[in-house]
Protein 1
Amino acid sequence: MLEITNISAYYGDLQALWDISLIVNEGELVALVGPNGAGKTTSLRVITGLLRSPTGSVRFVGTDLGRLTTHRIVELGISQVPEGGRVFAEMSVLENLELGAFVSDARKQRQETMAWVFKIFPRLEERITQRAGTLSGGERQMLAIARALMSKPRLLLLDEPSFGLAPILVEQMFEMITGINRQGVTVLLIEQNVRAALELAHRAYVLENGRIVGQGHGEELLSFESVKSAYLA
Amino acid sequence: MLEPLAQSLVFGVLVGGIYGLAALGLSLVFGVTKFLNVSHGELLMFGGYASFWVFVLWGVDPFLTIPFAVIFLALIGLVLYKLLFARMVKLPEEVKIRNTLLIGFGLSLILQNIALRLWTADDRSITTFYSGAAITFLGVRFPVVRLISLGIALVCFLALHQFLHRTFTGKAIRATVEDWEAAAMMGIDTQRVSQLAFIIGASLAGIAGTLVAIGYSIDPSMGLEWTLVALITMVLGGLGSIMGTLVGGLLLGVTQAATSFFLGGTYREIVGLLIFLLVLVLRPQGLLGTKRE
């Protein structure tokens, strides 16, 4: 479904990614793990068109995303939960969700989608009129994911959804993500929490210093020596 | 003593509504695009001339010339955006502010000279049979024309507020103001939102220009003064806050009026600039604005 071939990325003169290639198949939950600064978020920015790769290509169900603007990429069915959620703090929970369904196809179905989203995150329904800025960290993260789901994406990109959450919430968050994936949404999950992500994902890629250094099935990678020594010790 | 003071304060409030309206467009554009368009005052001047000529040539009631000014300025806004500002959208924020400042400065000179060429340096104002009419209440005069102008300014504030809060497009504008990248991730075309904000901003300047032409007077060199007024008002009210902008305008109007009453007219503008500097130094988020991280 998503096919990334040999992309690279630069911030000014600074190269951040080298020859990244990865594939996400329909229905999969794929994790992209690695330490801070490895280039995980940068990879996502290339997929969503916020950053351009001078090399290689990004293809989504056959369409080349290389020349498309971010909003066009969203219209094709890719939705992103950015790092930290970045909900619209000055706006209400309801308005945040409405904006999630901004693209025209999603807008028509927004009532049904919202009902679906509230089933996944019942807490948000209780907070519907509240300003997003007044939510707790966990609720904000939920809102960010719910907002991304409102566009009825085929592919959901999650950037560190567990970051800053209490351990008990982290577990819940991962359960929700698995649940969303089981309902047919393909997920590319970026995580620093390597063990949890590898247990969750069908397949995973390990990113280090802007290069992919390992890939395989989640369980396989868990027993991978370098992964073990680097992240699980 | 009391009556003349009350009279100048009333005039202050009446002009303050127009100050707010002049700043509203500037503030909207700045909030969405981070363009600091210092030729905003010239746009306002063009609105004034549009109304003046529609009034003179076709004899349309001055307040009914507003739609003409809006359409005229929306077109000018569109052309200027496409020609000059569209390419600034993708620049980093600081470069954007700097570049648009320079563009706006050059543009204000060009627009001023176009106006000079087309309409001469004469002061113009729209005078109609009810221009002198006034309601007197407790010995204080309320000129009808300026009352209506204040009403129109308030309607503009209310309408923009409703638009931004009730419509999908309006919410997209607010989302872009808060976090344009996150807005783009929602599928919002932030380029188009910027263009729309710029056109609305120009149109609002047009309306303000009409009201200035009706209640006061216009000339080709008025732009700088009104850009300053709009900037001061915007900073007073807090960047990007709609209702703050209205309060900022009223406050500036009243302060100016009080200053000319107690100290004399020459101090009017100095006080405005003084407040501007004080706010920038002591409360950069504006008097009513909230701090943003």
Protein 2
Amino acid sequence: MTNVQRQSYPYWFLLPAFAIFALMFLVPTGTGIYYSFTDWNINTEKINFVGLQNYRELFTDKKLVAALSHTLVYAFSVTLLRNAIGLGLALLLNTKVRLRGLFRTVFFLPYMISPIIIGYLFTAIYHPANGLLNGALRLVGLKFMAVDWLNDPRYALLSTIFVDVWRTAGFSMVIYLAGLQMIPTELFESASLDGARYPQTFRYITFPLIAPSLTINLTLSLIGTMKVFVMILVLTNGGPGYATEVINTYVMTSFSLGLYGQGTAANMLLTLLIVLIGFPVLVLLRKREVAL
Amino acid sequence: MKRSNLPNIILFVICAALSLLVLTPVAMIAVNSLKNSRESALFGLNLPKDFVWKNYAFVLSKPAVVRGFLNTILIAVAAVLVTNVSAAMAAYIIQRRPGKISRAVYYTFLLGLVIPVSIIPTIRLMMNLHLHNTYQGIILYFIAVNLPFTIFLFAGFMSSVPKEMDEAAMMEGCGRLRMFFQIILPLLSTVFVTSTIVVAIAVWDDFLGPFYLISDYKKWTIVLNIYSFVSQYETNWGVVFAFLMLVMAPILALYFALQRHIISGVTAGSVKG
């Protein structure tokens, strides 16, 4: 078999994909680690190794510390909300409600719109004087809540979080729905014969059985949201002040100032954050592999 | 299946209300794209007083916009083709020839699902290779960032292609390249559809890559054109919304036509093999 294997499954088949991936992804990641320890900037003729200096400077920069904490707050808030809402929507559509196919299509729709378009769309919706949101709030007598959503540092980050939840809740919903539909109907039937009520059925049957959907949803969401960039750029550009600064907008600022070493170091911090939080994904994917 | 105590009519009303939360913002873009600059700045949901179709003509009269669409299509087609074929080849070996090498290669690819791109070093690398600001450069970038997911998808699917197919083909004296391209690839057509959807949407939507890697506006993809257009015409929301509609409408039309494929495509890998 080994001989046959060697003949019909040659390793060079791996080469086209691996060569492109190595050159365009692994090499910049590797050299990035090195550059993050250098003074590389727009004026340097020669790049010098400076050890941990970039990292030390980053951690004494209030703006970077804010960007780090905003990235975490953003990622965890979006993940929590979109999963709560996504699960709610999935439970809603996992009933015999009429037109549920159409509702599924509608709830997933925002995910199909480019994030940049959604950014501009919500710039309009959040407009303090004319936007739909404040219009609706005034209409129902909640005038005191009609604030300047994107330009008030107290609400700006929260406002960007809501936009991403609006965009991605339908994505989580679809994953939960698939999980729910794999639960055998008999389980619910026998539970209801035993007199179980909805909260109990949910607690002891539904929730444990959709655990795989939950894990994949949480990890995908955490990894994805920590990489947030264009939506923040378009909605607030990191402002007001640096109330919505995240790591990727910080990297962009460093880059436009010509501080390449520093920007690369900030990028490296994002990598570190994601690996520490997102590593479970790899473990998860490995488990899935067995099931495939 | 249904165990809820709520009557279906209440569930229906809740669903309808939630649908409004999704559809109203989209409708807002649509109606305001047909208003003049003063009326569109009010962001109202009412129909326009006069339908200003000129907004669309104005956007399309910009050579940069048309070029942006063409660039995006060119880059997406090239990235989709190379990603699909090279991912299928790699996944074929990874799945059919298990061992240390295959495993190491596979896990290396999977790293790409987690780790973010180091963008500034990528620019430097592209400059050194004279690929910065070129179609080839951005296409290679998109292939590299999309390969991990595509390989993951193909490797999962490949196990459902019976190995006997390979053996039978070998008995016939089929060469390994011919065997792969004529026998294995056609069996993967469903997963090709999925990965094509995923990669095409990724290229269509991605901002970070083109933003850093293409400074020549003649090679911009459509999202960069949106970005620069809005900063130029931010006082006239009517034309901005018309532009957003032009980018959004074809995708949404496609979505309504193929929604089953698209939803299962975009969520593939997280739902089932």
Protein 3
Amino acid sequence: MSKKIVIQPVTRLEGHAKVTILLDDAGNVSDTRVHIVELRGFEKFCIGRPVEELPRIVTSICGVCPWSHHLASAKACDVIFGVEPPPAARKLRELANAIAFTEEHILHFYFLAAPDFVMGPTADYSIRNVIGIAQTAPDLARKVIRGRHMGAKMLEILSGKSIHPVAAVPGGFSKALTPEERDRMLPMAEEVLELAKFSIAFAKKDIFPKYIDVVKTLGVIKTGFLGTVTKDGTLDLYDGVLRMMQADGTYEDFPYDRYTDYIAEHIEPWSYLKFPYMKKAGKLSMDLDNPVGVYRTNTLARMNVCDRIRTPLAQKEFEEFRSNFGRPVQLTLAYHWARLIELLYNAEYALELLKSPDITSKEIRVPVKPRAASAIGCVEAPRGTLIHDYETDAEGMVTNVNLIVGTTHNNAPINMSVRKAAQDNIKGGKYDQGLLNMVEMAIRAYDPCLSCSTHELDGRIPVKITLLNPRGEVVATVG
Amino acid sequence: MEPDYLPEYCSRPTLVLGCGNILLGDDGFGPEVIAYLQAHYPAPKDVALVDAGTGVVDILFDIALSDSKPQRLILVDTMESGQPPGTLSLLPLEQIQGKKLRTYSQHHIPTSNLLRELGELSGVEVSALVVEPEEVPQEIQPGLSPVVRQAVPKAGGLIAARFFGGYERPIAQ
């Protein structure tokens, strides 16, 4: 009899998702669907509002990466008003972005991804969680939390608020950094850099070698990649051009305002979330053997599309990564490795920005006047390329809004990686908790923020698996 | 003296966390109560009022693993439990566990290991002040329903009376 396996929720993800695995009569995987719940109605809500309100409002979309939405929105407003923020304002925005990235990447690696590796992917769930990590490796947990505290504190000092930032404004930044504040932040930034250096060394020595077979096989698919680089191909998370790379490694660069020439959106009847794909491919096919138009974003994509990294330690790690795996890297679990290189880059870059002489300049904002305009504000968010596309009327009121968030770009590849992991790990109807966690690991690699505002964390019944017959009747539950 | 690097939510004996999304109707109750408290009841130095919005899990991760924890944690949130809309309940940890918000909510009270760790293993006194929502919309629609809005000052007064050292009425209206 055909069965349907439903995994809900996908634990430890920063959101709420449901995975459905359909088995054929032989008990093999015939199809999988990752249902992602999206926060709806935001675009409609924005219309008619003064555009300068959006950088403040968008931080309520997502409690996980509010800084990315905040900065993408502020950048779009700069373009709407036709202004260029002063150099120090740009540096303050980049500094906030770099610190927020370090916080996010530390959280993901140690609390969301590492339990799979530290405890082992088939370990019992009751120890394979954040508390398990704390009890197994208390000194490590202490070190990590100290780094997280420092990230949060630096954002508090820099912007007044770390959770719902309001500091970036159209035309610049609202609060100058004083020399005293800079001096308070410097030792914290130094310590976060030490944690970043420790993290990648720790992962390369104690984690990746042990699981290299899993890294080389789990959820591996063949796709293109999208990310931001400067005009000379250097990794940039705040500003630059978009680079779309094909699976064969060839690529094309284009400015933000041409994204609709390169990205189209496909709709599946079973999913609220759209499936962006490469427009020039003409269509989207998520066929594992012959995918068409699929691209990925987020850390691995950024490591693939860039030619170099501007800070020395991250550049060294980047060279080693590329020498080990080539270009482009298609291994899904290599997202974790790439994430640690980005952690190092952001920690180095934050320190570099803090040490730059004009970071305490008081020239941080230029005046703005409303006008009819359209604008694209784009940044790299921890979870991928984030696009804010606005239009305003002559009074500066919003007439149109379109957002594409990082996780949406990855909708098609997440579905493909899950199908690949399921096919490889569920055969002849045989599966257990460990195998199903492998499916979840494939999703976690992408670090999806599944509804841009949901949080689910329930350790008591972490995975609910329901077996349904073709008529939708429950025949068994596991979990 | 407390270390300079500790964020506000790990450095005070009492932490009040307003949880929820202000863009989703009654789900915004927690942040509204924090805003009300900030406007009407100056918090004593040993109390941190934090609008955690939808970022509460990140904060709880940090608190759970930190050597510096608050002595008591009060979550202010929305919870469906079948009571009339607007009903306030102050729940101890053992009554929070096992309950959660609507299945399709934009956030959940994290009832799991984190709160258990905080309450049972770390000795943090955990409680939740929850309101029964009238409506949490499926699409973005800011603003509390009238009945839940009426509960905001009541919730603020309750927290101030209980955790701020005995205010009997708001300082300003």
Protein 4
Amino acid sequence: MEKVMLKVNGRVRQFIVEPDRVLLDVLREDLRLTGTKQSCDRKGQCGACTVIVNGKAVRSCLQKVKNLANAEVITIEGLGTPENPHLIQEAFCLSGAIQCGFCTPGMIMATKALLDRNPNPDEGEIKKALEHNLCRCTGYARIIDAVKLAGRFMRGETTPGAVRPDPHGPKIGVSHPRPSAMIKACGLAEFGADILLQDPLEVAVTRSTEHHARVTSIDTSAAEKMAGVLGVMTSKDIKGTNRIKIMVGDQPILAENKVQCLGDAIAIVVARTKKEALEAAATVKVTYEPLPVLRSPQEAMADGAVQIHPDLPNLCFSQPQIKGDASTAFAASAAVVQADFSTQCNHQAPLEPEVTVAYMEGEGEDAQLVVVGRSIEIHLHMSNLQEALGYENVRYEEPYSGGQFGQKSAMNTEAIAAAAALHFKRAVRYIPSLEESLLVSTKRHPFYLKTRLGADKNGKLTAIDIDYIVDNGAYMVIGGYVVMRSLWMLSGSYNIPNVNVLARLVYTNNPAGGAARGAGPPQVTFALESAMDMLAEKIGMDPLEFRRINSLLPGQSVSTGHVYDEWPFPELCDSIRPTYERAKKEAAASKSGALKRGVGIGTHAFGIGGPGDEGRVFVELDPDGGMTIFCAVADPGEGNDSMLTQIGSHVSGIPMEKIRLVTRDTDRTPGMGPAAASRMTYMAGGSLILAIEEMKKAMKETGATSYEDLKKAGKPTRFMGSKKTEKEGPLDPKTGQGPSFESRIHAIQMAEVEVNTETGEVRVIRVTTAVDPGKVLNPNNVVGQLHGGMDQGVGYALREEYVHGKTKDWNTFKFPTMKTAFDMDVIINETPRKRGPLGAVGIGEMTMVCTAPAVINAIYDACGARIYHLPATPEKIKAALASKK
Amino acid sequence: MGDEAPRHLDSSNVGQRVRVLGGKEVLLDKEDFLWHPEDWTEEVAAELARESGIEVLSEVQWRVIRFLREYFAYHGRAPLNRDLKAGLNMTLMELESVFPEGIRRGARRVAGLPNPRMCSG
């Protein structure tokens, strides 16, 4: 041990530490300064733990305390408070630079160090100063804007008051800062790992080292005897079904007699410290009898392939989609293109790793099991836990959540921590490493798509034929829904009169697929939009014009047969055309030499408000004239707090500061369905409006103007609103015909790239998104979603691929950085939607659905290399260029 | 999953399904819970009860059903057992004895309370 004096946020403290103790752990664990975050297993890859030491921004996970004698340390908590924020914190809130907020404290501290030494940095200097800080939500553009604004504040060129929208002015169409922004900017928002528990036990899990095997024995005796260990549990100790069941109950919490996937949980160890728990978990002896490992859908569908699950065949779900007569239409087509495409397994990569805490509240048989996790559907997951654990009295709460991008439709650490808390009747924390989080969380499904697309001599689409196979991985999670979503939106922006599709979902021993931003449409759209460019070239038509003339028109139907009465896509083509022509002209001038520029586009019409969807929101008038909104609306970064507050204030007339939200607790909220499918603005916002209208109706009927008046009139002060979509019911199982989403968000994305034809490397110069999201409620939030989606879409196109057991951290994942950031432009058309709340729809997923094909089409435009299999790595581009020769 | 032979899934058995109950078309989920609680009628309840092995709903069973529906209307979610016990002044054993399929599969389903769900479709 060594004694080290440090001055932390102005206070001199002494620390007696082991030689390897790092500053991050002293700050978080000893001083409870949890604004400093940890994501990357202390490898210095993410910058979430950035603090200032002796005036310099440092990653505190890399700083050994013994080397910091007498250092002056400033953390986010030393900068400002919500009541008295630092100008940098104000700038981040006002710029829309804060989404999930997990990276924010580190970003702000890096900014502070920069501006202290350089009050007026240019963009290159900003990128350099923040190059070690990762963000998955924003695409970095608004963070750069925030640094610039902070500089202006600090140089006295403007003030927060001059920039901040008037909170008493218009509520809709205005970038009011998110209600949660300042608490995140000050490092005071409590994420899962920040929750303070009294004497918690730490959880570690023994996981399968096999991809597919029978488990013949589990020996926990050595682990049970180890120092600090309170106990070990296996599936035998779980009293319920031991099954996580989102669609079907195929996933054990703890393996029984078989493992289906590398990393399956087998035993839970709880101990006084995490180190003790991990060491004990490593001593649990599991013996396996290996089974054949099915590494692809093709292997899993082969004759004689071993069946992975007893109750469902490997080919577990299939659904055709038949409209018109594609065969005849292809025969009569003037031009037909066909190709095989595939998309990779990918990770959603929220910056916050998995985390759950759980404890028993109360005593004896009336004790309530409280699970604090990052679910985006707390009521469904609570219901799952009740059955899986055989314990009914469960409450699910959600802390602040560091992004999720669909991943938290699934459960993993929640079930482990809940099982341990229930079994040992103690408060537990399960905070796995990033490596373990990557291993166990769901992934974006890989798709394999045999695609054919035809057009007549006038360039009008005639038919589409896609035979696609989806790798479900080892567990269903929401695999069937992902296939359904891809079918509902299959024909994208276009009128394709003849459709012949077969979609098949297949179990393998690969990691389980789950929801991932877009969930299905990004994969199919990659094939469709690549084929659209191939067909445009074949018939000699400009790609944008080809798309415009094939736009669906009001009165026509999509591939499910669902007829739409509004489809403002042609207007969007017109809006992006000047930018497109400018880009084409610039690219045409840069075709000589090894560096070649290209322009590509992709489009989509993303569905909002699925068949049979419904929301449920309560509002309660408060005695002080305020209003509390009760609804289970997770907000892992999208800005749902803004949406509810601004709509609530606008429709009720109650000031925003008196709108209160209760959204993260199953005991206090109605079921609302998932914060997924870009549905919260449409379904929760729509339900909120209906609830407020009920409240206003009651007040009008009684002449009440206040809470007191309503009470005196004997009326309730609590009102429910439930928005339902107009159409419902399943697709026909034989034809795939039936209702689709009731509204759409339309988008065209255009990528400008530069391809190095010698190295195969691609530099993305700019991505432009032209979008019609209906009425914009909060411009900063809409643009923020677009930026983040474009960044994720480019990563999906060019770099990111999850390889099970090999992708172990943010470097091996190829996480986007300031270095890979590119220029982003946004063009917004606002066509109010008839059925949308205040004319709005939703935007969270559309923003990356067509990015990858735009990039791939741009690469082709640049150098003639057509990439059919994502991601477009330099090796694939070089191979495509070589085959062209 | 149950003990049935391996089956195959498609759009007809993963999400919504339409059935005639109580003389009208009603949307249900894959576990035969009502999709929309507003579709519930006493006739629908009687038919769902018959499927649960209850030929005629007793007054006690109706009392449980009415409590469940009133609770859902106010809270927008199903009650926990502690709320049921307190609201009905019944023990868990008494509650389970009047609905042979249990509180969730029996009482809540017959009362027309929907399951929490991940996606529509």
